[in-house]
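Section 5: illustrative case.
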């Protein structure tokens, strides 16, 4: 079986040796694909370098809504230049709306989100979308700015069923993390039952959100298998089915089917 971690933050996993070790553990666990996600200019550059260094690693570049207030007028142009110079950059984001923490003003988050959508349309790369406490607003921005033209991923999904259905209608995939293994995840597990397997991805969002039984430890890509196991349990299907479908979904959305 081959698994995919479609959203991790490799630069946060420790020093160079620790990161190399965790990539090796992921490979040994059966991961054939990892996507390192940019959250600002510096981490986007690092993600691109990890992708160059490891054959199973790809990258996305973007500004997280928490960091939107720190972006400059030329950030998106710098991203465009990075895309021109690195074919292993396969997505735009992490971008979106976080109305839970509001680390950046909401109007600035929205403007940044729209800018990322336009960059995705210009490059033909999929969006990686963060949404927390903003299900209605996120879907409205995606619709108003024709994000369905490129599609993408609602990462670390923790919103409601209505949002999941709205995102799927726009051609987006729904990515689930270790949150689904938590005792408090009953409503989210109901969403998994509703979402077709061909629209599901799995991720760790490492180093955050370690799944059961690794709660309290730093998360890492190898632990994505626990997410796959939970989806198999919820949907009453085999782990092999989940691994195969989610890996094929990941390759398709990130343009890695060739």
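Designed sequence:
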């Amino acid at each position: 079986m081959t698994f995919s971690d479609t959203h991790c933050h490799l630069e946060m996993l420790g020093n160079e040796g620790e990161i190399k070790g965790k990539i090796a553990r992921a490979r040994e666990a059966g991961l054939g694909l990892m996507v390192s996600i940019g959250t600002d200019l510096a981490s986007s550059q690092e993600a691109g370098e990890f992708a160059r260094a490891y054959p199973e690693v790809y990258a996305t570049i973007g500004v997280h809504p928490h960091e939107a207030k720190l972006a400059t007028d030329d950030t998106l142009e710098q991203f465009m230049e990075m895309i021109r110079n690195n074919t292993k950059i396969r997505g735009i984001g992490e971008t979106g709306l976080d109305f839970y923490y509001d680390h950046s003003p909401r109007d600035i988050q929205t403007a940044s989100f729209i800018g990322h959508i336009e960059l995705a349309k210009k490059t033909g790369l999929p969006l990686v979308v963060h949404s927390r406490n903003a299900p209605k607003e996120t879907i409205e921005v995606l619709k108003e700015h024709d994000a369905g033209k490129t599609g993408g991923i609602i990462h670390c999904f923790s919103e409601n069923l209505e949002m999941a259905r709205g995102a799927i209608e726009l051609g987006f995939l729904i990515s689930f993390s270790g949150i689904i293994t938590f005792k408090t995840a009953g409503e989210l597990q109901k969403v998994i039952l509703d979402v077709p397997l061909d629209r599901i991805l799995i991720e760790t969002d490492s180093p955050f959100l370690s799944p059961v039984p690794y709660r309290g430890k730093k998360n890492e890509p190898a632990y994505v298998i626990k997410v796959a196991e939970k989806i198999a349990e919820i949907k009453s299907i085999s782990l092999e089915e989940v691994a195969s479908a989610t890996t094929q979904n990941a390759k398709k959305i990130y343009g890695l089917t060739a």
